Input
Amino acid sequence: MAKESEQAVERVVVFAKVYSTKDGHPVTHEVGDKIEIIAKESYGQKMMHSLKGAERCGRVLGTLRDQLAQSEQRHQEQLAEIHAHHKVQLAEARAESDAQHKEQLTEVLA
Output
């Protein structure tokens, strides 16, 4: 395939070729669905590439870098909130467990 056209072969083309019968139909319906999904992803990547232009190796555009930093900060804040919430729940569970153990111990000793 690549030798004939002298171009890079796309992932969706290889996947479709491998998981299709001789007449070109997907082996199963699930495979057909996966081929469609991969084709949509490939099309989306092509559109993003055409909108952003040529990739500059080693550089991140300023707006993307800012968005990434903001996203990372939100993620860290969410993790901190979840951690604090779990810490409170653990302390409450530990206190409840200790109270139950004391109660059971007094019942056994009485």
